[in-house]
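Protocol step 4 of 5: obtain the predicted structure for the target chain.
Materials: sequence only (see below). No template structures provided, no constraints applied. The aim of this step is simply to have a reference model before the mutagenesis design in step 5. Sequence pasted as it appears in the construct record:
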Amino acid sequence: MDALVSTDWLAANRNTPAVVILDASKHLPDAGRNALGDFEDAHIPGARFLDMPNLHDASAPVTNTMPSPAQISERMSVLGINSSDTIILYDDSAIKSAARAWFILKESGFHNVATLDGGLAKWRAEDRPLESGSVNQAPTAALPLREPGKVRSKEDMLANITSQAAQVVDARDAGRFGGIEAEGGHIPSSRNLWFGALFQLDGTYKPVDQIKALFADAGIDMSKPVITTCNSGMTAAVLLFALYLIGRDDTALYDGSWSEWGADPDTPKSIGQHAGEDA
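Step 4 output (structure tokens):
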């Protein structure tokens, strides 16, 4: 199925058997929002709460690390999801967290996964139905899921600085990428494409030709592999999703991102808006 579905599509198909809608909202700490509370106040009818704020490996040294296959399997079981289900993800988040959920599920082996273009905000703006309250589902059997293959480590990124086997594109805003803001900077030779530039005013993704142009303007060669990064692996997934929309699948995500790289005094760091401007 298409990786991106419209609100019209969801309205027509949300009651179809084996279509599962998941609220994948997650917010930055300074947003002052509670994803579960928001879900219980209002969600798309029939949606289940994925609980993205807690879908990570809490034992990892870096925050927001990819959850293990066992963690994902347990979460999907609790939510009553089968491997054959068509999963539609949406969010109501400034950081477009449904893209991170899409990446997690696709990397775990789920094939029929898509995100709702425009998310809950567009659904609301069109005055479509909402419901409130908690949602409980009969659990399903645990699913055998795979280890993610498109996740890169700090060691991988250090090796890539030398080999230049893959291009690195950073989803943070220009201030953080360039080192204008405190604790800013970037991985040497990386390029910058702020994830927010991928969206239209109504929160939907820009057309494919415009997305291609944005990556080209950022200096990304569409014939070579790409690794995405950001602050904690969230908006880097938005870049990965956009790359998927334009037909690119030779991609990976640096999960530790700047939270890990910037905190290590031994990793090389660059400042400035262009690759090659070293600190």
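Step 4 remarks: The radius of gyration is 18 Å. DSSP finds ten helices and ten strands in the chain.
Proceed to step 5.
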